[in-house]
Every structure is written in structure tokens, then in C-alpha cells.
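Explain this fold:

***
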Amino acid sequence: MRHTPHYLMTDPHEVRRLIRQHPWATFVSPTNQGLIASHYPVLVEDGDALSIVSHFGRPDEVLHELGQHEVLVIIQGPHDYVSSSWYEPGDLVPTWNHVTAHLYGIPEILSDEENYQMLSRLTDHFEQHQPGGRSLSEDEAGTRRTAKGTVGLRIRVTRFDARAKLSQNKSTDVASNIVAHLESRNPELADEMRRAHMGR
């Protein structure tokens, strides 16, 4: 990402929060055949170190050469266009506000049992919010057979590069006006802007 020191997110807890709120991730691998990208949900693991787990549908693990090299995992949080009409007169350059994290690490392949447990946690995590949510345990034999079509992985994040570009370069009045315009169409981004500007 562009080197913008005043937008840096350096707190791992904030990166964890971003991943939890936006678990749909893009995995990018520099393979012998060139760059390969795939998209899968991720879970943040408990513990002091930043670590995520996920799964790939076969044969993506072969295409990505999983475990052979570092991969990039992109977490895209809330984002939106910011019109210059929301600024003070004469300030004509619009922008795009966003919260984004790039995570780096070498994937570790999970055993079949670890993969099934991870898939169960992943499913339970998302099903808990659904009316009449389901669980893999309702048909363990059948879901274990389906799980064989996937490969589980863990990435212990060795480094991350994260940005919260939220109009920190604007005055409090202008930032408040931007928040007001975003409130109805992108309330999550408006909330992130409020968080970023509270400490000013």
C-alpha cells in the first residue's frame, strides 16, 4: 500500500477487530505460474500472536502451492468515495476513505481432524446469527465426507501493513460533514471515522 504514515494502523488489536468484522479475505500467492488469488472466510484465533485459520476448496491448495512460500491475505474493511463537495469551498480533490489490512505469513496445512474442527468453528461462528442456524454436527458423517474436499490452513501472521484512511487530514468540521454524508449510505465507515477523529 502507499506509504502514508499518518494513516498507519499499528495496533494488532485494531487489526484483529477489522478481521473479525470483515472475515471475507483475498489470498494472493506468488506461485511458479504467476500470481494466484482466491477468496475465503477467515477466523482470528485466540492468543497473543496474530493468527488466522481458513480453508481452501481443492484444488486451490495446489494452485497456490500452499506451505511453500509466503502469502498475502487482504482484509478489506468499510470503504467509500468521499466527494470534494463535502469539503470547504476551494478544496476540490475528492478521495476514497477505507480501512484495509495486508497480512503476511506462510500457511501451515492442518490435519484432516484439525480442518474439520476449524470448519465446524467457522460454520458455528456464522450460523449463530441465523434464525434456526445449523451445525455440521447435525450430520457429522456426511459433513466429514464433504470436508475432504477442502484443505485447512493456519497463517501465523509474521507482519502486517494496515491503513485507516479516514480524512484525518481534514478539519474537525469537514470530517463531521463527511460523517453526516456517509451516515445513511455507509454507517460502518461513518463509525470508523468517528473512532479515528475522537482522539483529535
